[in-house]
Design brief:
The complex is a heterotrimer of chains A (about 270), B (about 350) and C (about 300). Chain B is α/β, with parallel strands linked by helices. Helix content of chain B is about 40%, strand content about 15%. In chain B, strands 1, 2, 3, 4, 5, 6, 7, 8, 9 and 10 form a ten-stranded mixed sheet that branches. In chain B, helix 6 packs across helix 7. Chain C folds into two domains: about 45 residues, no CATH class; about 190 residues, MetI-like fold, CATH 1.10.3720. Helices cover about 70% and strands about 5% of the residues of chain C. The interface between A and C is large, with 119 and 122 residues.
Chain lengths: ~270, ~350, ~300
């Protein structure tokens, strides 16, 4: 509320931006509200309301498919966290090389290579990677999914990171090095902390890309390895059931709890 | 970040460990997701001391593409639809079951013992079968629905409110029935007529959705829609006032089959599994779960009684024949592809 | 120009020049093996003969490219004319992806800006809030979105009840729904890169400018925008390029009555057609188009740096 008072003079605030942000969040969350409400539906329908019930939550934990869904959820998260971590690391190093590496001949080519996974339709990557893995005798399983996801996530992590780095003058690192810091120290102690918002953005984008990937995963996964998207899309013979909505709602619950905790942690930091 | 990585590495090791715990006897099944009750798989694993691994796909074509890209030889059995059995057979992806290898082969219902897609059941056994026709919302339209005119030259009440399946096979087979021409006909006039019919009918169609074919009927987004029998029954259970049609011109039949794949790593166990699914009690459990139909004699006593009266399972007396989607020659398929692209360009 | 450099328009330096190769090596290796090699294989496939129902026969053929550019009638034996079908499909995809990108920019930029100007400790929470919805599977999200927007759904009910409209607006199964589906699939990919760039922006520059030019909007356009351009461009790439090949959400919302590039290519590998060389050729044409665009951007950026340096 403090900002509202000084808005007239505050160079930072623009009329309407807050409204657009709220609209943006509304658009993003409105469908999730539907998901949450219908996860408590007594009916087997995704869209027809028949009264409140916890049957789909019971189904998630005790239903005949519960083990498969649990395993799928765990696989999805493990793969997403590992793939996002590895691809963000690779992307951060690459961005440093590209933005802080001076001019070099292969720069345009490198940029093309890094953006390549964005440009190839997923089904093409999927078929090509599968043929490739098979031709080198690589058994399909969780490892193949992971490798494919890492490659696929790199541009999603790279672009926000490099955009951020282009906005940081190197005077900070230069100053540190003038004070006898090594290049390595300048990189880890100065550049990386300054880069954090970019790195977090890149990590989160890579994470959601991996978590939601269906087409590539569907091809490179091996027998018995299921992720949430392949489980959901594979259920076509029986149709989509609200148990998916219950799982989704629980995922949302977990993430909202995480945000709330970090909010209060940051608030207590502020008051220090 | 470091802790995060450590944690995820541990979790990864755990996941890999869980999958690596293989016993001596294995069976690797390539199947649709949620198309077989877990208890039944457990029962088989226990009875035969076999470690069962299930991998899933979302369409016949995706399975074919995956096997073609090199996955053949890693699975023992798969569950393709009728036309796909014949395609896979033609591609040499199926192993032949010798006489006497399946002790329960005699349980297969006579009508399914010699299907066009696998004469003499050389490599397959029936799994589930049903039909693909269309359902109409009776609140919107009360007239006669047992004609394919509903889809291709609809009454005013339904025009512009029809959802089609997003699959070339189902749409073109239904259109061929409507025109009364044989499937896979290479007659140029007939193919032109087919093209013209679809071009003209498109104006009446609001969408092509397969994944949500049931949802669009339940929510009322579509007043009529091409749909699988089981989905129509579910739409009704969810409160949509829909009636499933058995057109006099005929309708599309489908049958999923368990096939023995070529180069199956555990051929013996695959045969045991097929025998297991030919026991009436076991396949009835699948039918009670999936709510389609079994192709095995003697299942009736094990079936959920409500299945017998389900309208989707009981064609009326005037219904046309149920026909399987046929597998066309390369030349005709090329024209079909062109027609399909014309339709959706 | 000087202001752009000072505010960090594109601060490309050579601080880590010696380590450059090592820094880039992991990305080069990973992407060469896992993306470039498969793409190279697809390039070869696009010049091979199709095997009926998927796969290729190792015989050189231009049939795939011929099919793309020449129309030989329903039966393939009419005299060749120029084929407009696939060009039309490509054009539609470019147009829809472009519209979705603009929509994302119009909504995403103010959002990113707003987040970047929150107190520092709260920013990560806002960023998180933008990505949380994407923890839920795309199919489920899109089905729910469709439920909200349908003719007699909650959105139309609301507008009717407040008297803003007299009859329901049809959104589902229209062209706009396709764009909405793309927008909804990729919004965070616009917001986060812009946020990462704006967060770094030195607002004293805008203050100085505002003193001179008097209006904040001019300061936004002349000073802030050039400074955060890398973020805006990164966001546009991340929305536009994947949108071109995307089809799931747009098909569900838009009704799938018309092919997008993505669904056309998917059909070649997973549909009845099973025409891998044609799918590969269409992908290569798409790839070439996008690559030319991106390379042009990269070169133009390099030129701008040369001019500055």
């Amino acid at each position: 509320m403090a900002t509202a008072k000084s808005a007239k003079f505050d160079i930072k605030s623009y009329k309407g931006f807050k409204a657009i942000t709220l609209l943006c969040l509304f658009v993003l969350y409105a469908p999730l509200l539907v998901v949450t409400i219908y996860s408590f539906n007594a009916s087997a329908s995704l869209t027809v309301w028949e009264g409140v019930s916890l049957r789909w939550y019971a189904d998630v934990f005790t239903g005949p498919e519960s083990e498969k869904f649990k395993l799928a959820a765990r696989n999805s998260f493990v793969i997403a966290i590992v793939a996002a971590t590895v691809s963000t690391t690779i992307a951060t190093l690459a961005a440093t090389g590209m933005v802080r590496g001076g001019k070099f001949k292969l720069r345009t080519v490198s940029f093309g290579l890094i953006s390549l996974p964005l440009m190839v339709p997923e089904i093409v990557s999927a078929v090509a990677i599968l043929i490739f893995f098979n031709s080198i005798g690589f058994d399909r399983g969780i490892m193949t999914i992971l490798l494919a996801h890492i490659a696929f996530c790199i541009p999603f992590a790279y672009l926000p990171i490099s955009a951020r780095m282009q906005g940081i003058e190197d005077s900070y690192e230069q100053a540190a090095m003038d004070l006898y810091a090594t290049k390595k120290q300048a990189f880890t102690k100065i550049l990386i902390p300054l880069m954090m918002p970019g790195i977090i953005s890149g990590f989160l984008l890579a994470f959601i890309v991996s978590l939601d990937d269906f087409i590539i995963t569907n091809f490179v996964k091996g027998a018995g390895v299921e992720t949430l998207p392949t489980a959901i899309f594979g259920a076509v013979k029986q149709g989509i059931k609200p148990n998916i909505m219950a799982i989704s709602t629980m995922l949302l619950g977990v993430s909202v709890v995480m945000v709330t905790i970090s909010y209060f942690v940051s608030k207590s930091d502020n008051t220090k | 970040m470091k802790n995060l990585m450590k944690g995820s590495a541990a979790a990864l090791a755990l996941t890999i460990g869980a999958n690596a715990a293989l016993a001596e006897g294995d069976l690797v099944i390539y199947h649709w997701f949620e198309y077989m009750p877990q208890e039944l798989l457990d029962k088989f694993a226990e009875e035969h001391g076999v470690n069962v691994t299930l991998d899933t796909y979302d369409s016949n074509e995706a399975m074919l593409a995956s096997l073609k890209a090199g996955a053949l030889g890693t699975y023992d059995v798969a569950v393709p639809g009728d036309y796909m059995v014949s395609i896979m057979g033609g591609e040499g992806m199926l192993d032949t079951i010798a006489d006497g290898e399946l002790k329960n082969k005699g349980n297969i219902k006579a009508e399914w013992a010699d299907p066009s897609f696998d004469p003499g059941r050389q490599s397959s056994i029936p799994y589930q079968w049903g039909s693909t026709s269309f359902a109409v919302n009776r609140d919107v339209y009360q007239g006669d629905i047992n004609t394919t005119d509903i889809l291709f030259t609809p009454p005013a009440e339904l025009a512009g409110k029809i959802n089609m399946l997003d699959g070339q096979g189902e749409v073109i087979a239904m259109a061929s029935l409507h025109l009364g021409i044989p499937q896979c006909s290479s007659d140029r006039e007939q193919l032109k007529a087919l093209n013209a019919l679809l071009q003209d009918a498109k104006q009446h169609w609001v969408s092509f959705n397969s994944d949500t074919a049931k949802e669009v009927l339940v929510s009322g987004d579509a007043a009529a829609g091409q749909i699988y029998d089981g989905f129509s029954a579910k739409a009704r259970e969810e409160g949509a006032n829909v009636e499933y049609a058995f057109p006099t011109q005929g309708y599309v039949a489908w049958m999923d089959n368990v096939v023995l794949l070529k180069d199956a790593p555990n051929r013996e166990n695959a045969l045991k599994f097929m025998d297991f699914l030919l026991e009436p009690e076991n396949i009835a459990a699948v039918t009670n779960f999936a709510r389609y139909n079994a192709g095995v004699d003697g299942v009736e006593e094990f079936l959920d009684p409500s299945l017998a009266t389900q309208p989707e399972n009981n064609p009326h007396a005037d219904a046309g024949p149920g026909v399987f989607i046929e597998v066309c020659t390369e030349e005709v398929q090329a024209v079909y592809d062109q027609i399909w692209t014309n339709l959706k360009k | 120009m000087a202001a752009g450099a000072a505010s960090g328009g594109s601060a490309t330096t050579d601080t880590y020049k010696e380590a450059r190769t090592w820094l880039l090596l992991p990305a080069w290796v990973t992407l060469t093996i896992l993306t470039l090699a498969p793409v190279g294989m697809m390039l070869i496939y696009s010049f091979l003969t199709k095997e009926f129902r998927g796969g290729v026969i190792w015989e050189f053929s231009l049939a795939a490219y011929d099919q793309f550019f020449f129309d030989r009638g329903l039966f393939g034996d009419d005299p060749a004319k120029i084929e407009w079908t696939y060009i039309l499909i490509f054009w539609r995809s470019i147009w829809q992806a472009g519209a979705a990108t603009i929509l994302s920019l119009v909504i995403g930029f103010p959002t990113a800006y707003f987040i970047a100007t929150r107190p520092e400790s709260q920013r990560p929470i806002w960023v998180f809030l933008i990505t949380i919805p994407y923890w839920v599977n795309l199919l489920i999200r899109t089905v729910s979105m469709k439920f909200l927007l349908r003719d007699n759904g909650p959105f139309n009910d609301f507008l009717l009840s407040i008297g803003l409209i007299d009859s329901p607006i049809t959104i589902v199964n229209t062209n706009f729904a396709v764009q909405l589906g793309l927008f909804y699939s990729y919004l965070p990919f616009m917001v986060l890169p812009i946020y990462a760039a704006v967060e770094r922006y030195n607002f004293s520059l805008s203050e100085a400018a505002a003193d001179l030019y008097a209006t904040k909007w001019v300061a936004l356009r002349r000073i802030l925008l050039p400074a955060v351009k890398p973020g805006v461009i990164a966001g546009c790439i991340l929305v536009f390029v994947p949108s071109m090949g995307s089809f799931l959400a747009p098909d569900l919302l838009g009704g799938a009555k018309n092919f997008m590039i993505g669904s056309l290519i998917e059909e070649q590998f997973k549909g009845n057609a099973g025409n891998w060389p044609f799918g590969a050729a269409a992908s290569m044409i798409l790839l070439t188009m996008v690559l030319i665009l991106l390379m042009a951007y990269a070169r133009q950026q390099a030129k701008a740096e040369n001019a500055e340096g």
